[in-house]
Structures are given as structure tokens and as C-alpha cells.
TrEMBL record:
Localization: Membrane
Superkingdom of the organism of origin: Eukaryota
Membrane-crossing residue ranges in chain numbering: 68-87, 108-127, 147-165, 270-291, 297-319, 331-348, 368-393, 492-511, 517-538, 603-624, 658-676, 697-719
Keyword hit for Cell inner membrane: no
Keywords for this protein: Membrane, Transmembrane, Transmembrane helix, Transport
Organism: Cafeteria roenbergensis (Marine flagellate)
Molecular function (Gene Ontology), one example: oligopeptide transmembrane transporter activity
Protein name: OPT family oligopeptide transporter
Cellular compartments per GO CC: membrane
Membrane topology category: Multi-pass membrane protein
Length: 787
């Protein structure tokens, strides 16, 4: 029966298959014109929006607790595939195509990360803290309409900014974008277009950056993702999965179908059970507040430990987060917690270096330790951004300052996009790349090479080109299958969109905060610059240093608007939003590029998801802050304190006693470790033995950014993550097959279950619901609802 596409928002005319780029893992000739024409379908956008909405609501809650959000591109792809798989089995609904799945995960990611991009993790709560503490110059409370406008203008201009970055980042330099690469490979396996390699290594997840634990952007994807995908679909190269057992009266195809149905039934049961378990625990801890944060050290007669956060929070959502992050990241966070809250906090308290209450986030020990955490995160961010900027400058000089063709010059600066962090042992690559060309080959073709290599891949490069001896006037064209298929975003569209988005952002922020129009305009211009660096860092390392670029923007803006704390925070918010949105879309564009999807379809999916995320994140934020006080035990908003502290510092506020000294020491140590890791991670021909030894040692060094995050969030949020990472390690070692097949969905169920129930709990609290009992509580240290 001929394939009939569903309702589509985009129906470009059918064309001949575009040529195959060497990074593509799917032959464009295998994609039917119907699938290509129907990839931006209404059903794909709707399912992506629903998945993204659930993640967005959960992320709004977790962002206010620890500044953490999850991108969940893998989960969105797997769940989206499963939804249509079940629909096909139950009612004969047409299965989701591979290109539609790209749209599903693009839409979902755009919606899910809005709490971070729109500043609901730190910026808006920082304004709330300013008003609560009577800070001079605190902005007025933003109405619901103002929050919608704020989120909309911040979320959209970064999407337009990513479009012109696609060519250099993805086509010319072939940056790895490990999360995007792994997502593409998982989607390919789900839809039976490539064979998975056996999972290897333990799950590892990269941490995006400071406010990201804000977003552990699925760094190197867990081996579980490979197991999920491998069990969900068979490889086209093998034709079909081998049936578990011959069933009389059933064809091989029917046995395969039954086997797949049984596998997906098991997955849905695991996802549903873990969601229900996490939701049940969330309800119980809401109405029995002592379970929210068990003050075990208080009961043991050590109140200082309880005051600084050494309590036990039995949260299944944070257990799930730890399962996804893996042991290296959580161990690094635990190291940060020990340094900050078991060593420096007692020292500062005993020496009298803090003037307020022990648990005070402004003048108490918590506030004192925050400066140390900020120094550690800035030290790591400076290295990431600085090294990325250095390579970017080198790339531009190679393009315009030598006789070598641009693509050849750019290729050599970062190994044609093969970043040091994307080595095979990190688990980012899930599928054999035998069908791809050598990563070192330049992606260029001259006029004579248009019909070169089979399948449209770049033609052989003349040795003179490789050696850089050809004249610079020779025009070389980068192979872009999307351009030849007519699927790129039109230049005029993104140029006009970026101009209008810039103007709308500048005008809206000027009116909302009663600031001169040039201040938000400068902030937007600065955001465009730092987004280029941040997006490149994401492509090379899988770390999007959004909080780092935000803090550096605050430092720059102190000269533009000296003494204005509010304008300083707004400038950081704009930079963070631009870097976040541009990075998200480029990550998704990498996924789409590898699978032959339309950049234009992904662009519109990103806009649709962003608009959905605006609505969900604003409603969730208002509901949560109506039920719980910002800065209280339920919503401590640690990143808000970091943003506010940085703004006050660059505008001349004095640090607490000895905070500057120890911040300098911790920052210098972070800088040194980050530099050594960056340097040691780049092998060179003929290098000395001591450098190989250093590189081996640095492989065991902790994640500096994770250490910083562990220093500024309370230990009670770190301990369950550590428990989760240990749980998944034990699971992997005792039942590897079950771990690879079910771990990702089990962890996601824990996260989603508590995240969604937290919104319902907030509604109950806002409606006047009271705790069942406050027995065992220690008041504000554990629960704002108990005396």
C-alpha cells in the first residue's frame, strides 16, 4: 500500500535525493519523497510539544531547586517513537518516520529547556530576592503578561542566530556535537537504518556547565541509550531481528512484530511504574515535611551540619538524575560538597567570617561559601571560553589571512570537528562509522568535483589543495545536501527574523526595566558575540558554558551601566538566553544533518517548541512561587544567589572577610586543573613521555564545573544523585542487558514523576492544603510550611 503522509505544515516539492555528506549516517536516496515532504507533520510537532511540556514543567521545578534542567533529546526520541509504535499496534496508526522523529525531539528540546533560556532558573528568582531583601534598585514585580513577553523575546532571537552558524560549525569544521551525534545514531537504530555497536563502558554524561547542572546536556550518551535503541529496532543491513523462538503458524515478520510489541510493553511498564513511584514519594514528602529533608545530624547533636544542608532528601527524581549523570559527575559534585560544606563552612563559622545566621544565604555561611563556588565555576568557564575563542580566531585567520582554502584551513584547527572530548571511550559514538569517509578529509569540492565521488560525497582533493599551494582565488564550495535539496532556511528569513528579534528584545526590556534603550541593545549585541563562542564550545566539548558567558557579560556590562545591578543581571540573562537557544538548535541541526532532515523543518519545530515552552514555563513558575517562597527550603534557587552576587561584586560590593582570599585560591586551583586538562587532552606527534603520563592522570581528574556546582548547591541535593549513580553502576554490573534496555526510561520516569507531581503539589499548597504532621521538623531549615 502506498505511503500517505499525514497533515504537514511544510510541503516542499519532491526533488531528486540530495548528495550524501560524509558525516551522514543515512543515505539520502533511502528517504522517500513522501517522508521528506511530510517530516514537519502536525502530529510530530504535537507529540514533541506534549513531551516537551512535561519536561518543561519538571525542569521549572528542578531549576528552582538546584539550577538544573535536562535537555532529554534521547528520551524524547525514544518516547516519541514508542508512542507511535503503540498507536500502530493498537489502532493501525501510521508509524513515525525517521525524519518526523527528528522533528519530535527538536520540538521537545526547545520546549524543555525554556526555564533555563528564559531565566526562570536564576534571573527572575534573583529579582525576587532583591525585592524580598529590600535591595536598592530592585525591579518591580513582573506581571503574568510581562513574564510571557520576557520569555518570548529572550527565547526566539537565539533561534535565528543559530541559522548562519550552521555552515561553519556543522558542514565546514564538522564539530562533533556529541549529544546531537548520539541522538542521531539512536534514532537511526530505532528506525532500522544502521546497526548498533555493542555498548561499552559505563554511562557517562557531560555536564553542560555551572547553571547547567542546569543542563547535563546528555554529554556522552549512556550505553543504555544504545541498548534502548538496539532493542527497539533491528538493522536494515541485517534485514530483520532474529526471532527469539520459532512460533508455529507465524511468519518471521509476525514474530518480529510480536517481539517488538512485547519489548515496548515492558518499557512502558517500567516508565509508568517509576513515574508513579516518584509521584507517590513526592506526595508523601509534601504532607509529611520531615521526609523532605531528614535532619539526621540535628538528631545527632550537630546542628551546624544540618544548617548548611547535610540532610537526607529521599527524592527519587534526584536518584534518576544521578543514574543519567553517571559516577564521574556525581563524584565530582560530592567532592565539591565536602570541600564547601564539610571543610570551609565550619572553618568560616568558627572563625567568625560570616555575620548572619548559619544558614543565611546572604550574610551567613552559605553566602560566604557561594563566593568560593563562583570562583571555581568562573575559572573553568574562562578556560573553556578562552580556548574556544582562541581556536575561533585561528580559524578566521586561516580563512582570510592565508592562501589556503577556508574549509581546509578550518578543518585542521580542531581535527575537523573531532574534539578531544569526543573520543570513543567516552561512549558518544554508538554506531560503527564504516560508511562515513575519513574524518580528516576536507569537506570541499571545486567546480570540477561536482559529480565526483559516488553518492555525491566530496570528490578527491588535489594534493596541491591539501598542501595549501593553490591560489586563494580558487572558489571552493562546501557540500551542503540541504541546500541542494532546497531545504535550508532562506537567508532573508533569518536576517529579518534576527533584526526583528533584536529590536523586540531591546524595546521590551527597556520598557520593562525602565532602562535606556541602548542598554538592552548592547546586551543583545554582546549576546550575539558570546553565543558564537558558546555554541562552538558545545560542538567541541558538549559543554555549553551558558552561565560562564553570562557572568563574563556581567563583568563587561559593569562598564556600560556602572552601579546598576538590575541592568547587569538583565545583560547576563540576554547572553545566557542567546547562547542556550543557539546551542540547542545547533545540537539538533547536527542530529538532523546526520539523518538527512530538513534544517528548515527543524527551525520551525524549534520555534514551535519555544513558544510552547514559554507558556508552560511561565505558568509553572508562577504556580510554584505562589506555593513556596523563593529562597526557602523547597525552592532555594541557588543560581539566583550566584547571579545576584556576581552583579553586586562587579558593581563594587565588598566581599565578606577572607572570602576574596579563599575565592582566589579556589579559582586559581580550578583554572590550573582546567588548563592542564585542556592541554593534556590534545596528543601531539612525538610528545614526551611525561606529557602522556599527565594526560593519563588528567583522565582521572574531577569535572571542575561539577565540583563548583557541588559547592553552591546544598549537600542534600547531591547525596541522592550519588546514590542514583551507584545504583546504575550496580545494575550495569549485575544485569547488563536489562540495564542497557531499561535504565534510561527508568531514570526518566523518576525525574518526570516527581517533576510533574510537584506542580500538582504546588497547586494544592496554593489552594490552602496543610501538612498532615510537622513531627520531627526543624522549622525553616526543613520546611517552610511548619513552625
Amino acid at each position: 500500500m502506498p505511503h500517505v503522509p499525514g497533515p504537514s505544515l511544510e510541503q516542499p516539492p519532491a526533488k531528486a535525493p540530495p548528495p550524501r555528506h560524509p558525516d551522514m549516517i543515512v543515505d539520502p536516496a533511502c528517504i522517500t519523497p513522501e517522508d521528506r515532504a511530510g517530516q514537519l507533520s502536525v502530529r510530530a510537532v504535537l507529540v514533541g510539544s506534549v513531551i516537551g511540556s512535561m519536561l518543561c514543567a519538571s525542569n521549572a521545578f528542578f531549576a528552582l531547586q538546584t539550577g538544573w534542567v535536562t535537555m532529554a533529546s534521547l528520551q524524547a526520541a525514544v518516547v516519541g517513537f514508542g508512542v507511535f509504535r503503540v498507536a500502530h499496534s493498537s489502532c493501525g496508526c501510521r508509524r513515525l518516520t525517521m525524519l518526523e522523529n527528528v522533528v519530535v525531539q527538536t520540538t521537545s528540546v526547545a520546549a524543555s529547556t525554556l526555564p533555563l533560556a528564559a531565566g526562570f532558573a536564576g534571573i527572575i528568582p534573583a529579582f525576587e530576592l532583591m525585592r524580598k531583601e529590600g535591595h536598592p534598585g530592585a525591579p518591580p514585580e513582573l506581571s503574568m503578561a510581562s513574564l510571557f513577553l520576557w520569555a518570548a523575546v529572550l527565547s526566539l532571537f537565539g533561534v535565528f542566530l543559530a541559522v548562519p552558524l550552521r555552515r561553519d560549525a556543522i558542514l565546514v569544521e564538522r564539530l562533533k556535537f556529541p549529544s546531537g551525534t548520539a541522538t542521531a545514531e539512536v534514532i537511526a537504530v530505532l528506525h532500522r537504518v544502521a546497526a548498533p555497536s555493542p555498548p561499552s563502558g559505563t554511562p557517562a554524561i557531560g555536564l553542560s556547565d555551572a547553571s547547567q547542572l542546569e543542563q547535563p546536556q546528555a554529554g556522552a550518551v549512556p550505553a543504555a541509550a544504545a541498548g534502548e535503541a538496539a532493542a527497539a529496532g533491528s538493522a536494515k543491513v541485517s534485514g530483520r531481528d532474529a526471532p527469539a523462538a520459532e512460533e508455529p503458524g507465524m511468519s518471521v515478520a509476525e514474530q518480529d512484530e510480536a517481539s517488538e510489541d512485547a519489548a515496548w510493553t515492558q518499557r512502558w511498564r517500567v516508565l509508568g511504574f517509576t513515574m508513579l513511584a516518584a509521584a507517590a514519594v513526592s506526595v508523601v514528602t509534601e504532607f509529611v515535611p520531615v521526609l523532605h529533608s531528614l535532619p539526621v545530624f540535628q538528631w545527632m547533636g550537630v546542628p551546624l551540619a544540618t544548617a548548611v544542608g547535610w540532610t537526607i532528601t529521599p527524592s527519587l527524581s534526584y536518584v534518576g538524575q544521578g543514574m543519567i549523570m553517571g559516577p564521574r559527575t556525581t563524584a565530582s559534585m560530592l567532592l565539591g560538597s565536602v570541600l564547601a560544606w564539610a571543610v570551609m563552612a565550619p572553618v568560616a563559622q568558627a572563625a567568625g567570617w560570616s555575620s548572619g545566621p548559619v544558614g543565611g544565604a546572604e550574610h551567613g555561611v552559605k553566602g560566604w561559601v557561594t563566593w568560593l563556588a563562583l570562583a571555581v565555576m568562573l575559572g573553568d568557564s574562562v578556560v573553556i571560553i578562552g580556548s574556544t575563542f582562541w581556536r575561533l580566531v585561528g580559524s578566521l585567520r586561516a580563512k582570510y589571512g592565508s592562501r589556503m582554502p577556508s574549509a581546509v584551513c578550518c578543518r585542521g584547527l580542531c581535527g575537523a570537528g573531532q574534539a578531544p572530548s569526543s573520543t570513543p571511550q567516552e561512549g558518544a559514538s554508538l554506531i560503527p562509522r564504516s560508511h562515513s569517509s575519513d574524518p580528516a578529509s576536507p569537506l570541499v569540492r571545486g567546480e570540477a568535483g561536482a559529480g565526483g565521488a559516488a553518492g555525491g560525497v566530496a570528490a578527491a582533493v588535489d594534493p596541491a589543495v591539501a598542501e595549501g599551494t593553490l591560489p586563494s582565488s580558487l572558489e571552493l564550495q562546501v557540500l551542503d545536501p540541504a541546500e541542494e535539496a532546497g531545504e535550508n532556511v532562506p537567508t532573508m528569513f533569518w536576517v529579518v527574523g534576527l533584526a526583528l528579534g533584536t529590536a523586540a528584545c531591546a524595546v521590551a526590556l527597556s520598557v520593562m526595566f525602565n532602562s535606556p534603550i541602548y542598554e538592552p541593545l548592547v546586551a543583545v549585541m554582546l549576546s550575539c558575540l558570546v553565543a558564537v563562542v558558546a555554541a562552538r564550545a558545545l560542538g567541541e566539548t558538549d559543554l555549553n558554558p551558558v552561565s560562564g558567558v553570562g557572568k563574563l557579560s556581567q563583568l563587561f556590562f559593569a562598564a556600560v551601566a556602572p552601579g546598576n545591578v538590575t541592568s547587569n543581571i538583565v545583560a547576563g540573562a540576554v547572553s545566557e538566553a542567546g547562547a542556550q537557544q543557539a546551542g540547542d538548535l545547533l545540537q539538533d541541526l547536527k542530529t538532523g544533518h546526520m539523518l538527512g532532515a530538513s534544517p528548515r523543518a527543524q527551525f520551525f519545530a524549534q520555534i514551535a517548541g519555544s513558544l510552547v515552552g514559554v507558556v508552560v514555563s511561565v505558568v509553572a513558575y508562577k504556580l510554584l512561587t505562589l506555593a513556596y517562597p523563593v529562597g526557602g527550603p523547597e525552592l532555594p534557587a541557588p543560581t539566583a544567589r550566584v547571579w545576584l552576587g556576581m552583579a553586586e561584586l562587579v558593581n563594587g560590593q565588598q566581599l565578606p572577610p577572607y572570602a576574596g582570599l579563599f575565592a582566589g585560591l579556589f579559582g586559581a586551583a580550578a583554572l590550573l586543573v582546567s588548563v592542564l586538562k585542556a592541554w593534556a587532552g590534545r596528543p601531539e606527534p612525538g610528545e614526551a613521555a611525561w606529557r602522556r603520563t599527565l594526560r593519563g592522570a588528567m583522565a582521572w581528574a574531577p569535572s571542575v564545573m561539577a565540583v563548583g556546582v557541588g559547592m553552591y548547591i546544598a549537600p542534600n541535593w547531591v547525596l541522592p544523585r550519588c546514590a542514583g549513580s551507584l545504583l546504575q553502576v550496580v545494575w550495569k554490573r549485575t544485569n547488563s542487558a536489562g540495564h542497557d534496555r531499561l535504565m534510561l526510561l527508568a531514570a526518566s520516569g523518576f525525574v518526570l514523576g516527581e517533576g510533574l507531581m510537584s506542580i500538582a503539589n504546588a497547586g494544592l499548597r496554593a489552594g490552602g492544603a496543610e501538612p498532615w504532621t510537622c513531627d520531627g521538623c526543624v522549622g525553616e531549615l526543613a520546611c517552610s510550611g511548619c513552625p
